[in-house]
Every structure is written in C-alpha cells, then in structure tokens.
Q: What sequence folds into this?
C-alpha cells in the first residue's frame, strides 16, 4: 500500500450532513487534520466542542483531529483538498462563496451523487464551471457508502475517480484507514453516473417494497436496472466495466437493500401511498434520487436510451401510475420477446449488435450533435 505524504495535511469538508461528516471522520481516522463547514453554528459547535453530530450521526463519537466552523473562509483556509457534500441542487449557489477561497493547487472532491436540474450536468462539471478550475484538479468519490454504517467503522470500499490519475491517487492516499479502503480510476463519467443512477433504481425498489412485493420482484428490478444504468452511462462515454464495479453494482446493491438508504426509504413511502409532497415533508434529509429522475430522463431521451424502470418511477412521482402497477411491467410493456442484454435484442432487419449505437448516433445528429449536456 502506498504511504501518505510526509508532513501535516489539512483538508476541509463542505457540508456537515451525515455523509459529509462521515467522510470527515474517514479522513481524520486516517491521520488527516479535518475542518468541517456547517451552514448553521449549532452543528458546528456540536462537532467542535462535543465531537458529535447529534442531528445526523447520533451515538457516533468523532475524532479529536476533526473540528468544524460555520465560517466558510475559516473552514477552508490552508486546505490542500476540499471535499464538497451539499445537496446537488444547491451546489452552484454554494460555489459562489467558495470560488474566491480556492488556492491555485487545491484539489476539489465531489461527494455528491446527483445531476443539476436544467443543465443535466454532473457534479464534477458543476464544480468545473462554478469554480473555474481545470478538471485535472477535480475528483469524485463513490461506492457502497451508507453513512451510518461507515461512521460505526464497518469495513467498506470506495472508488476515487479523476481525469488525472495523480489527482485520484492523491485523494485516495488520504481517504483510507483501517475500515475504509479506496481504489482509483479515470472514468469520471461512469463513476458519477453510477452514483446517480443507482439512486433511481433504489427508489423503484423502495416502491415495490412499500407495495409488498417480494425478493423475486426486487431482484428482477435490480438486475434490469443495472442494464439501464450501463446503457445510459456507456452512451455518455463511460466504460461498461465501471458500472460493474464499486460505483455501479456495489453501490446499487447497498442502496437497494438497506433501510438506511434515503432513496429506498423515499420509494417505500411512495409505495405505501404517500404523495410526492408528503414524502418530501417526511424525509429529514435529501433523497437525491427524487431530484434526479427528471434530468436523467431528459438526458436519456436526448441521446436515445430507453430507461423503462426510471420512466415508471417518474410516473409514480407524478401520480400517473399506481405504485402497485410498477412491478408487473418490470422493464418493458412490449409483449415481444427481447434479449436479456441490449446487444441480444432481435432486429427485424437481421441487424447486428452495432445497430443500437448506430441508432444513438443518428438520434444525436438529428438533435444537433448534443448528447451529454456539456460532456
């Protein structure tokens, strides 16, 4: 295993929710000096004075080398790396205050799993635009990362991705300890979309769980959901193998099966008959999957990718599909036999597995060559 750089290392984490605080703990337990930024003084005081974050991680004691500030400038001063963990739809606004505080060599890491409404941009792209920094200084962290389990030091793994391998490695050297291991890759697109898309499938799983369907139904949706995730990500330039790794399949399994998952919980409430607005009111934390359904489907339609499971989740959210009717359709309303893999799909003209990407290319040409919203 590579050794961490010599000398004191100081980092900042923007956002003191459950995942931001947990990642701060990960870094601190690995020997790094960590300063959290909390929007309100109360959680900052709780972290700094009592080494707790009672609102989000009850019962968890935080390390002595983790502190917090409610003043953003004080929190990020001198940080070599800044980890950002705020709700995806508030990111751009938060970057206005952060931009003048970023040093010329500071690495910025996204801990978020969402896409921006209106633009369809991934979080790393919003960081690039909002901060005006080169992508080589941006990384993303993803994987099967249920915050409370990790905060309780249950072993897990994650992946750090950056277009610059050295950047990914520099982050991975700090973001690891005896219970948390990190791997690296350079497929930022696949890593980010894996983290986004699994939330949507987790909402679907929650819905059928709330309705009362069993393990066969859920296993079918998870499996076919991974196909939708892979098709979508690959169409946007990702590597298929990334979706079979920690940021795809690993995160999908954890998020779909755990009651700790906010997206699973939100789906379960929908399946029990609560309206979208009622679910939002009941959720104490942001379920990113609910906010990502519309922008993901817009991107999918633009590039010509079918996502029938996510389409049905949207209909449930809109109140146009009864939750109990989501499962019988599974992934298609067609009565025609279909191949399990997209390249197994029968073609009327006897075409090969190259036909689907060719269709996507034609679709993009018809829409002025636009696909991934600024990729």
A:
């Amino acid at each position: 295993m590579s050794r961490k750089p010599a000398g004191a290392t100081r980092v900042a984490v923007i956002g003191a929710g459950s995942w931001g605080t947990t990642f701060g703990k990960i870094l601190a337990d690995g020997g790094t000096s960590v300063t959290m930024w909390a929007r309100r003084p109360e959680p900052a005081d709780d972290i700094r004075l009592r080494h707790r974050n009672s609102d989000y991680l009850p019962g968890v004691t935080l390390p002595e080398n983790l502190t917090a500030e409610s003043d953003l400038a004080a929190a990020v001063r001198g940080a070599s790396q800044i980890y950002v963990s705020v709700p995806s739809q508030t990111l751009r606004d938060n970057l206005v205050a952060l931009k003048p505080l970023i040093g010329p060599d500071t690495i910025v890491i996204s801990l978020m799993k969402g896409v921006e409404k209106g633009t369809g941009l991934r979080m790393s792209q919003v960081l690039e635009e909002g901060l005006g920094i080169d992508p080589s200084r941006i990384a993303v962290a993803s994987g099967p990362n249920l915050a409370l389990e990790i905060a309780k030091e249950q072993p897990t793994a994650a992946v750090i991705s950056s277009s610059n391998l050295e950047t990914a490695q520099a982050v991975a050297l700090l973001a690891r300890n005896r219970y948390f291991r990190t791997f690296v890759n350079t497929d930022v697109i696949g890593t980010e979309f894996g983290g986004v898309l699994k939330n949507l499938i987790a909402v679907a799983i929650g819905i059928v769980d709330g309705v009362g369907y069993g393990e066969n139904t859920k296993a079918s949706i998870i499996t076919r959901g991974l196909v939708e995730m892979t098709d979508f990500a690959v169409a946007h330039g990702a590597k298929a193998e990334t979706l079979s790794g920690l940021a795809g399949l690993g995160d999908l399994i954890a998020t779909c099966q755990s009651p700790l998952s906010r997206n699973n919980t939100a789906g379960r409430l929908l399946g029990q008959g609560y309206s979208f607005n009622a679910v939002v009111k009941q959720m104490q934390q942001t379920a990113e999957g609910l906010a990502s359904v519309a922008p993901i489907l817009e991107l999918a339609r633009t590039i010509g990718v079918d996502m029938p499971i996510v389409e049905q989740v949207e209909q449930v959210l809109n109140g146009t599909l009864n939750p109990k009717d989501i499962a019988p359709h599974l992934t298609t309303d067609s009565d025609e036999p279909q191949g399990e893999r997209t390249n197994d799909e029968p073609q009327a003209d006897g075409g090969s597995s190259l036909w689907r990407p060719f269709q996507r290319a034609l679709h993009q040409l018809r829409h002025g060559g636009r696909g991934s919203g600024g990729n």
About this structure: The longest strand covers residues 156-161.
